[in-house]
Amino acid sequence: MNVLADLAYWQETIIKVLIGLAAVLLPAGTIVYLYLFKMMSFMQSRLGPMEAGPFGSMQPLAEVGKWIQKEDIFPTKADKRVFAAAPFVVLMSTFLLVIILPGGPDATFVDLNVGIYFGLAVSSVSVIGILMAGWSSANKYSLLGGIRAAGQLIAYELPMILAVVGVVIQAGTMNMQGIVFAQAEGEIFGWGGIGNPYIITQFLGFVIFMIAIQAELTQPPFDMPIAESELISGYLTEYSGIRFLLFFIGEFATSGVFSAIAATLFLGGWYVPGIDPHNDIFNVIGPLILFGKMMLVAFFIYWFRFTYPRFREDQLQRLAWKVLIPLSLVNIVATGVLKVVL
Amino acid sequence: MSVSEQEQLAYIAAQAADARVNLELETEDGMTLNMGPQHPATHGTLRLVAKLDGEQVVAAEPIMGYMHRGYEKLTEVRTYPQVTTLINRIDWLGSFANEVPFILAAEQLMEVEAPPRAQWIRTILFEMSRIANISLYIGDMAVQIGATTPIFFAFRDREHILNQIERVTGGRFHPNFDRIGGLKDDLPAGWIEETKAVIKKMQTFCDQMDDLVAGNEIFQARTRGIGVIPAEVALSYGLSGANLRGSGVDWDLRRDQPCGLVYDQCDWKVWTHPDGDSYSRFWVRLQETREACNIVDQLLDNIPSGPIMAKVPRIIKVPAGEAYVATENPLGEMGYYVVSKGDLTPFRVKIRSASFSNMSICPWVLKGVFVPDIIAILGSLYFILGDIDR
Lengths: 342, 390
Description:
The complex is a heterodimer of chains A (342) and B (390). Chain A is mainly alpha-helical and 342 residues long. Chain A has one domain (2-341). In chain A, 69% of the residues lie in helices and 0% in strands. The longest helix of chain A has 35 residues, at 9-43. Chain A starts with a helix and ends with a helix. The relative contact order of chain A is 0.15. Chain B has one domain (71-357): Cytochrome-c3 Hydrogenase, chain B, CATH 1.10.645.10. Chain B is built from 16 helices and eight strands. Chain B has helices spanning 5-21, 71-74, 80-87, 95-110, 116-145, 150-169, 191-214, 217-223, 231-236, 242-245, 253-256, 278-301, 354-359, 362-366, 371-381, 385-388, and strands at 31-35, 47-53, 56-63, 178-179, 182-183, 321-329, 332-340, 348-352. Classes of the chains: A mainly alpha (342), B alpha+beta (390). Chains A and B meet through helix 7, helix 11 and helix 14 of A and helix 5, helix 6, helix 8 and helix 15 of B.
């Protein structure tokens, strides 16, 4: 960390906070515009926003402006403090998640030696925020949505963790940086031309991880907590104005961060084949490469989102406990055996 | 202190209305969930009071009347030609189909018959409004189940049909085109060829929806075996239309009583499905849209020439008498019971609308299902609020 190492702790922290904010908000805005507004519209034979800016590209800003202006309504019977705090708790888990992401050999927020473990732990914090929102709204739809969300997120945390275990076994480390290096310097049966992106050797793990994050993000086909045709908006029903905006940012920023984690774990993170992974150039182009890979993963998330109908709650649980968890356990066993044998 | 009789009556009415608003279903325990009057799944102002145990419905009851517009009463102060304007608004997605049974009933009382050309064009427009109505239902059902995309395809392709209806009638949604004794106008030039092309598009749309919605595994998992209505229950609750055919009852007024419409002039099939669940109701409607395209396509080929209006007096006075005519509308059996005393206006009109009867099965079919299934069942029963509350 050549540049930042010379700075005082507070200077370094301010820079990191600003970069962290950008790392959460910029991908969220890009995803909202490119995928939610434009890709969805093109899939549905519409044009999407066209007025604000060239091809409507300023529309996310216009939306933010609109939500900020709106009245922040509290229901009469709501538990005011919990109601007010819930969106911040959800957003907090996003910010805690983003700090484990490495953007280059030296470009890290915090280089935790159990990075992915920490990430999976803090990603569950959002459940608390959602339960808070569901309970404090004093609305039966919110309550149903909150409880569905809690059941769903807990059920899908397990396959997600178990899918990551395969990667951790193969990389031999929980450090995100270590996982990237393991992929960059790895070999597929003795051939190291493109390193060893784990999407090849851990394809089952990748599929399980993608399904699990789809459910973690409560995106269709797993959007029962906010199922608009059943529960109006689930736990979001009573929120308006800036608090709704925070939930909204949280949703899309989290989808970006989870995509980036998937890109780091399975697609080699900031690394591209052909350049020595210790080269300093990666501190500059690494974040952009990671961003590109993240958008690729996010594309799949949103493609599924606009295509599939919604599961029922019991079908979702059945999928998690009867299909995904056994499959991921098989994946762990196979990975472990191969690791020992090879 | 004396209370007048009128005040007493007003008090009783207020109490009764209040009891309806604050309805509590009589069950052991559970949480009362009010779905509606404003709820995305009821696409209108239907209110569904459900008692839940967890997510399971213990009892449910639909409460109607939030959009009551008093059409049956209003018809008594409108002349016969004016009535069609009103009844256009009953099932607003397939408006032309609403006019036909009323006009047929009036024609029956007046003992006039529309010329063959008018009958053919009526049948074509009737089936086109069926396509317009049900194609939107197909997209809407997917939205109910949670897929956002098909509804936009439905809106896009329905527009072709609406354009063709507009070309003939001048009204995109509410044609108000049917007259006692015939039709207002003849077909515009080139309309038949254009409509043939549009029908091709709609057939492609049906194939697309067959793949995209009916063929989707999640859609099938959500609708198969959900909301099963056996044939005898369906008959006893007075279901009609695709809801009845989805339960395996081979019943179609187009084939059974084709009064005034020329369904016997073409080759088509009544689709039924034996399962009686949400999926079968959806499937039957999808096949019916195909069949309607097929009917229109055949009828367009050989429209007879001739006048489009029979000889009727300029000022229409319907002779005294009673007539009930029902047709197979997009939503099911729609009938008008018209009582005339020989005036300019009907003495009494009773509208038998399909959705109202279809909704009566709600308490029976919703018992014991989960909250997401309520939506799948309501969606597949397919009601239009204007058709429930006239």
